[in-house]
Write a structure and sequence with these properties.
The complex is a heterodimer of chains A (about 300) and B (about 450). In chain A, about 75% of the residues lie in helices and about 0% in strands. Chain A is mostly helical. Chain A has one domain: MetI-like fold (Orthogonal Bundle). In chain A, helix 5 packs parallel to helix 9 and helix 13 packs antiparallel against helix 14. The longest helix of chain A has 30 residues. Chain B folds into two domains: about 190 residues, D-Maltodextrin-Binding Protein, domain 2 (3-Layer(aba) Sandwich), CATH 3.40.190; about 210 residues, Periplasmic binding protein-like II (D-Maltodextrin-Binding Protein, domain 2). Chain B is built from 18 helices and eleven strands. A five-stranded mixed beta sheet of chain B has the order 2-1-3-10-4, with helices on both faces. A four-stranded mixed beta sheet of chain B has the order 6-7-5-8. A two-stranded parallel sheet of chain B has the order 9-11. In chain B, helix 2 packs antiparallel against helix 14, helix 9 crosses helix 16 and helix 16 runs antiparallel to helix 17. The radius of gyration of chain B is 25 Å and the shape is globular. Classes of the chains: A mainly alpha (about 300), B alpha/beta (about 450). Chains A and B meet through helix 4 and helix 13 of A and helix 3, helix 16 and helix 17 of B.
């Protein structure tokens, strides 16, 4: 083109700049830069800072001391307890949520009342839920749970007496509080599954279980992934409700981070525990995305 | 058009007038009232009393001083005050800090920075002449340890033992357990779930065990001397008779005593006395016939009756301004009136002996126990790493040996746990404070304070 113009005695066509050539690809990024700065400063920077601090002490740089120290303090137990609570709570929440959502997917009299009751716990503040469940399942043999048992002549139960009992109590309380969120997501998922698929499956002789396995679950897949991402990350981070109910025993990773940090001079130890927590959540998110994204 | 101009002129005039009024009001306020920012760590009921009763009473007497109350937990207070001092932004500030955390402000991060003001010259004007002798001894200790006065005792706190008189009487006990041998024997008779202990958190548990270690003749700071081991072994044996709720029990656990869930509450801070005698919808009110309170069982040896003294101290951050206003408020807080009402309404033992004069009869029971306990004080050393000491104790010894029962209570298992805690404390000091501190620790130079 430039040669033809020269031969015709015309001025050469202007060369397009980098910006002119790539404007359509680059321009949209300017709209997300503010959000990126916000997320970067308020999310990624603190996380990176915590990881950096985890390798520091007031008098040493780049040391594994904090990790070694926390391991000797029982960090493997903290991690184990946290994973048990996470797995137990997610199993309970998703099982209940699938059942509730499948009910809410149908039309029946009183559906709005049932839906309101099912979703109500999400509006309760976590600290209020923790205090309430502490009154229901305290460790002293008192509480509303034991009052109900007393009506049937049963002896009081010390719900928090063993580590497994205490963790189970937290799982139950947390599931009561957070199943609603999963229900809301799955109800939306149910609504997206074409009714015709169920009709076709019924015609082919599929019963309820096979319909659930071959129609419902595949149709809910992306919604389950979203719910698992949201609830899974929140579950690993469980703190407020657990702290209200069981305090520092048995130990959860988040509670230990708080206890170490609140002690004043434990910011480096707390950062190493927080870095481990960050690693667990990151692995979980990647795993869910990878497994949930497979066709 | 002239109407438009008229409207504009009127609007501008009103805006200018309003602005001038507000500016003038602000100027008048800033020159006539000094605001003291007061940081404290109080429970909701205590905070309500402070902000609705005590502070308004002070402001009524000193109309040119306004107190801005800030509720902040003790650990966060250290972070906050450190930041204010480092940022030269202290202002007119007074703090009431937990005695367990004040060391972090005196020693700073690496043990070389003091974030508190030296108040040696003004302390005589703040501290009343009628301070309890053990509290006066604290300020004398400061002069020796720190070369000056940096904090003043404000709310002394000492653990007491509360017990259900009716339950003990029905089992044949006419008096409370006089020593630890009696306590274990009584618990055996009273049965399982008869004793409550604060086993739910580092600070609460370690505070009680600090006292027990001293009472057994040990140095709690090292974890593993004979007295420490004997105290922990005793605790393991007593745990068989504890209400299982002890595993989560902290300073807020007291209701079970009134509800009949346990018979001996060893221990709790005195603030629970008005709560137990007051009662509410879920806690039956106790009275002098049903509720007993005393300093607690004695141990063996020289410090058998030692009582750990906790509580809060008043301090002024370095760089604070308007010292005259801070001084007046601190003086008020340490005065007989404020000390007495704090004691009666919130259960905090007074450091001013005048506060114990003319008390209601119902208060005399717990005050008698407090005064007895304050006669044999022992303090935790104000070192900046005290919370790590607490954490080590809880994670390395108490959790495996008592809570988890690892080792089945065997002495050898206890020795292993205690030695682990000792070596971890030393390695922590080496990595975070320096080799000198670690060597001092290894030599046993850190121990309880007897003033």
């Amino acid at each position: 083109m430039a040669v033809a113009n020269r031969q015709a005695g015309l001025a050469p066509a202007p060369v397009a700049t980098f910006w002119q050539r790539h404007r359509d690809q680059v321009f949209p990024f300017f709209f997300v830069i503010p959000a990126l700065i916000y997320v970067g400063y308020f999310a990624f920077y603190p996380a990176a800072d915590a990881v950096y601090l985890s390798f520091q002490t007031p008098i040493k740089s780049f040391t594994f001391f904090n990790y070694q120290y926390n391991v000797q303090q029982g960090m493997y137990t903290w991690i184990e307890n946290t994973l048990w609570v996470t797995a137990g709570a997610l199993a309970l929440q998703f099982g209940l949520a699938l059942a509730i959502a499948s009910i809410l997917a149908k039309q029946f009299r009183g559906k709005m009342v049932f839906a309101s009751i099912a979703i109500l716990p999400i509006g309760i503040a976590t600290v209020v839920a923790g205090i309430a469940w502490n009154q229901i399942l305290p460790g002293t043999g008192a509480g509303y749970g034991n009052s109900v048992l007393a009506l049937f002549g049963a002896s009081p139960v010390y719900w928090l007496n063993t580590p497994s009992g205490a963790l189970a109590a937290v799982v139950v309380a947390d599931s009561w509080k957070n199943t609603s969120l999963v229900v809301i997501i799955l109800v939306a998922g149910y609504a997206s599954i074409p009714r015709a698929l169920y009709q076709a499956a019924a015609i082919d002789g599929a019963g309820p279980l096979r319909q659930f396995r071959y129609v419902t679950l595949p149709g809910l897949r992306s919604y389950l992934v979203i719910a698992l991402l949201i609830r899974g990350a929140q579950e690993v981070n469980i703190f407020q409700l657990a702290y209200e109910m069981i305090g520092s025993y048995p130990q959860l990773l988040t509670v230990q981070v708080y206890d170490l940090y609140a002690s004043g001079e434990g910011v480096y130890l707390a950062s190493s525990a927080a870095a481990v927590l960050l690693g667990i959540i990151s692995i979980f998110i990647v795993a869910v995305l990878v497994l949930g994204g497979r066709k | 058009m002239s109407a438009v101009w008229a409207i504009i002129v009127v609007v501008v005039a009103i805006a200018a007038g309003l602005g001038g009024y507000l500016y003038g009001k602000g100027q008048a306020t800033s020159t006539s009232t000094t605001t003291v920012t007061y940081y404290d760590d109080l429970s909701p009921s205590e905070e309500s009393f402070m902000t609705n009763v005590l502070i308004p009473q002070f402001e009524q007497n000193y109309t040119n001083i306004n107190i801005q109350y800030v509720n902040i937990d003790a650990g966060s207070m250290v972070t906050k005050i450190t930041a204010l001092v480092q940022g030269n932004d202290v202002g007119t500030t007074l703090i009431a800090e937990d005695n367990l955390d004040i060391g972090e402000l005196i020693y700073g991060g690496t043990g070389s920075t003091n974030y508190l003001m030296n108040i040696t010259s003004i302390a005589p004007y703040i501290q009343p002449a009628t301070m309890i002798p053990s509290m006066t001894a604290v300020t004398n200790y400061e002069a020796t340890a720190f070369g000056g006065t940096y904090f003043l005792p404000f709310r002394a706190n000492t653990p007491l033992v509360f017990y259900n008189k009716t339950a003990l009487k029905s089992n044949g006990f006419t008096t409370s357990p006089a020593n630890f041998t009696d306590l274990l024997a009584d618990a055996t008779t009273l049965g399982s779930s008869s004793v409550m202990f604060q086993g739910g958190a580092g600070d609460d548990t370690a505070t009680e065990m600090f006292q027990w270690d001293v009472q057994f003749g040990g140095n709690p700071m090292v974890y593993n001397d004979l007295g420490d081991l004997q105290a922990m072994s005793y605790l393991y044996n007593l745990s068989k008779y504890m209400n299982p709720g002890y595993k989560q029990a902290i300073y807020s656990e007291y209701a079970g005593l009134a509800q009949g869930k346990y018979d001996i509450l060893d221990y709790q801070w005195p603030y629970v006395y008005p709560l137990l005698t007051g009662g509410n919808t879920s806690i039956p009110a106790m009275n002098s016939n049903t509720l007993g309170v005393y300093p607690g069982p004695n141990g063996t040896g020289v410090h058998a009756a030692a009582h750990v003294i906790g509580g809060d101290v008043l301090a002024i951050p370095k760089g604070a301004t308007n010292l005259w206003a801070i001084q007046l408020f601190a003086q008020y807080l340490l005065g007989a009136h404020a000390q007495q009402v704090l004691m009666v309404d919130t259960g905090n033992p007074a450091v001013n002996s005048q506060a114990y004069v003319g008390l209601p009869a119902s208060q005399s029971i717990v005050d008698s126990a407090i005064e007895q306990a304050l006669e044999n004080p022992v303090f935790r050393p104000p070192v900046p790493w005290i919370e790590t000491w607490v954490s080590n104790f809880y994670n390395d010894i108490f959790t495996p040996f008592v809570l988890d029962g690892t080792g089945g209570g065997a002495w050898s298992a206890l020795v292993t746990d205690a030695n682990n805690a000792n070596s971890q404390m030393e390695s922590y000091l080496s990595a975070n404070v320096g080799s000198a501190a670690a060597s001092q620790y290894a030599a046993g130079d850190y121990g309880p304070l007897y003033v």
